[in-house]
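Quarterly update from the structural biology core.
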Amino acid sequence: MDKLLTVMRREFLSRVKTKGFIIGTILTPVFLIAMMVVPGLLLFLKSDKPKQIAVIDQTGAILDSLTSTLSEKNKAGERLYSFIKHETQPEKIEEEKKALSERVNRGELDGYIIIPASIYEDGQAAYRGKSVTNFRDNSRIANAISRAVTARRIQQSGLEAKQVRQLVRRVNLKTFRIAAGGKEEEDQGRTKTVVWILVAFIYMAMLVYGQMVMRSVIEEKSSRVIEAVISSVKPFHLMAGKIFGIGALGLAQYSLWALVMGLLSHYGVKIMGLSASKLTNAKFAMPSLPPEILVFFIVFFVLGYLLFAAMYAGLGAMVNSDQEAQQLVFPLVMLVIIPFLCTFYIIGSPNSQLSVILSLIPFFAPITMFARIAAQTPPAWQIALCLTLLVATIFGTIWIVGRIYRVGVLMYGKRPNLPEVIKWIKYA
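Predicted structure, tokenized:
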């Protein structure tokens, strides 16, 4: 036991002191913070550069409404949208389009809009400009034209515009998640995002830290250091020490990230919510996850890591170089990718037959069952069955991989085939 702890401590300390670990641990939360905060801040930035837009209004009734609707001004008191009336005969429309396009190319105009007389029937208008990628501007112009056309259609029908708008107003459907004890919490879809982020953490842990175990075995095996180590430590203790040491490293790293993200969600979201409410009169609420969800996250994080770290350790013992490992690692990677891709479906339909089946497959369970629990807690017997199968699979995998590891770490030269691996398991 003392030797296992020694190996575990060595694996932990040898990596936690490296520059790569320190830089990665610091930069990851910084990157996550930037991904969460920067897009939110950019939403509130508005361009105050005036736009000169020519309008060919063949209806003769849309331009005035467009000008009055989009009447905002910048800090200098200039209109953000200056619509210039441009009249032409219908038969000369193609000539005018060419002339206006030339003015756009020369920088005299930002673009031009053509509103045909048939817009009341087919609802088609066109905007042409040197740049049409500003979706905010495009949407505002389209909405202003649509509003004017709708009002004109209502007027032509003889109805009152105010009454019609009252009749066709949108319904605001609020969604509430019912938690344990019947407690209700408004959920605007952000819980789904939080669940997906937690699932992604489990996914990365099984891939990144599992391959870290594999590379550690390959490095010691290729440098022949392992021959000296095996003389004083049993192969199984060496394998277990690597798995637990790197696992402790992963938990420490994730715990730090969780602390940073917790503080960000508590304080940063309040600031963003305050800004959003001032600018858009909208409420911004960060979804809260029950404590048991975080407990299950730790459970499936640890169990998933132990299962895949053991398999990666066995793979590292069978090969002689990292290049050989990359040729064989594909099946293990697919065992992680497949359930991760199914997460989108599982979160949307946590109790479907396919979701239940996927969550009971031990190699998929760390991701699929946690996704089900986080989206909508399944029956207790399904969780118990899943954990039983998963733990049994981990013990069985460690037993098999331990026998492969015992022989494989001292084997060099030709990579073993399947019959040889079976012999290792049989006679180790």
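Residues 235-280 form the longest helix (46 residues).
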